[in-house]
Structure formats: C-alpha cells, structure tokens
C-alpha cells in the first residue's frame, strides 16, 4: 500500500502491486501544459504552448493574453476557457466549442506569420517553466528505459523546444501534438494533421498508431493530466491492465474538486511539483521491490 502525506492530495487509496519485470511493462502517458509545466509561479500564471497563456517575446508573437498579444486571442480565452473548465457542462456539449476555439487560435497564429527560426529564441526569452522536480522525473524515466508519451493539445514545436532547453529531451520521449507546417521560407502556413484539443485525445491516440508503438505491450500505465479529457489518452494502448491516474487540479478548485476526485485515482490540488509522480516512479523502479 502506497500512502502520501502531502496536504494537497485527494483521492482514493492507492495500492501498487509489483511483480517481476515490472520495469519492462511500465510506461508513462502525460499531458504537457499545466501538467508537466507549472500552472503559476510567484502568483503569476505561467505561459503555455497554446491558447490559454502562450509563450511570447518581442521577436515572436505566440500570443499571451495576460501580457501582450492580439485582442482577438484574449477575447477567445475569455469566451472559451470558462466553457472548458465548466463542471456543469458535459463533454458532448464542450466538444464542438473546443474545436471552434482551437481552429480560431490556429488561424490567428497563422496570421502572425510566425517564423520557424524564431521559436528557440521565443522559448528562451519566455517564462515557461516545468514543474519543480522535472529533471528527476525525466532523467529517471530515461535511465530505466521507461517510455514517456507526451500527449498535448498545445503546439508541438514549442513543446519540444521547452523540453530541449531544459536539457531533458531523452530518446524515450514520444510526442503527439499539433505541429506547425512552415512554407519554404520558414513561415507558418498551416498546422499538420488532425486537430488535437482538450477533449478529443482518445481519437487522437487512435489515429497516431506509430507514436503508440513505444508504449504498446506495457500493461501498466501511469497517466498524468490536468483535465478530465486527459483520462482518454491511454485509450489507444492495447492490453492495458493497470492504469494509475493523477490529476493536477490547478484552477476553479472547489467547483471541480468532486468531479476530479471521482475521476482520477490521485488529485493534486495547486501542487506545482512532480513530487508525487517522482515518488511513484522511484517506488516502481526500485530494485528492492522489482526483484
């Protein structure tokens, strides 16, 4: 029985049963924005790779509504974000509105004529932050050859740059996200493939079979997310026997706490660290228990 003492934790009792070869049968599937990245730091919202609080600098307008950026983006945020986190609306009600939101955001990003050669500089000059303890998390998974599938409704090009600049982009990482399509001059002209938003990650998983190969035949999954829509990220993985879900509840806590506790095995409330995922990963991979 695995117990926790942090006051920010809610949820069910968690029992982790270990067996021979568990490390070979274990994988992690995680959302990125506000899951692997911080939600806030020193009382200020941290930028994300997409439409809520995106990365920005004077060289590249990846639109940040709380600081600078087009008025249309802030209007979209104020219109659609309350819908996304509204505990009183069903997923079915939210789906078409999320498609509408993401589509409009992508159109605005394309209008900015974003240059590929400015991405690295934009991320470097932004205040994007991974959660405290991220290096232990990424490095430990890589050391034990545990696949990490990052499933994000953000912008994959920016996401990759954030991980790369934090020096934790290891070979065990695979990413499903919205990727930019640049023209021959290096200017954003479109987005590639199927649109991925908060509530269609199941369909996204099923349509990215090649990305899922790394985590197939691993029946034990640790799933991390900050939205109820993230709970479907493992749906494309075959023969999963045990899925331990951790939900980061960052915003509108009282309104959403009940639904999160009913849906995730563990709920971390306003916790900006990777302490609990790190403790679980270290426990599962410890030689003391996996012999």
Automatic annotation (TrEMBL):
<keyword id="KW-0378">Hydrolase</keyword>
<comment type="subunit">
    <text>Monomer.</text>
</comment>
<keyword id="KW-0479">Metal-binding</keyword>
<dbReference type="GO" id="GO:0009117">
    <property type="term" value="P:nucleotide metabolic process"/>
</dbReference>
<dbReference type="GO" id="GO:0008253">
    <property type="term" value="F:5'-nucleotidase activity"/>
</dbReference>
<dbReference type="GO" id="GO:0000287">
    <property type="term" value="F:magnesium ion binding"/>
</dbReference>
<dbReference type="Pfam" id="PF05822">
    <property type="entry name" value="UMPH-1"/>
</dbReference>
<keyword id="KW-0963">Cytoplasm</keyword>
<keyword id="KW-0547">Nucleotide-binding</keyword>
<dbReference type="InterPro" id="IPR036412">
    <property type="entry name" value="HAD-like_sf"/>
</dbReference>
<dbReference type="GO" id="GO:0000166">
    <property type="term" value="F:nucleotide binding"/>
</dbReference>
<comment type="similarity">
    <text>Belongs to the pyrimidine 5'-nucleotidase family.</text>
</comment>
<comment type="function">
    <text>Specifically hydrolyzes 7-methylguanosine monophosphate (m(7)GMP) to 7-methylguanosine and inorganic phosphate. The specific activity for m(7)GMP may protect cells against undesired salvage of m(7)GMP and its incorporation into nucleic acids. Also has weak activity for CMP. UMP and purine nucleotides are poor substrates.</text>
</comment>
<dbReference type="GO" id="GO:0005737">
    <property type="term" value="C:cytoplasm"/>
</dbReference>
<protein>
    <recommendedName>
        <fullName>5'-nucleotidase</fullName>
        <ecNumber>3.1.3.5</ecNumber>
    </recommendedName>
</protein>
<dbReference type="InterPro" id="IPR023214">
    <property type="entry name" value="HAD_sf"/>
</dbReference>
<keyword id="KW-0460">Magnesium</keyword>
<keyword id="KW-0546">Nucleotide metabolism</keyword>
<dbReference type="InterPro" id="IPR006434">
    <property type="entry name" value="Pyrimidine_nucleotidase_eu"/>
</dbReference>
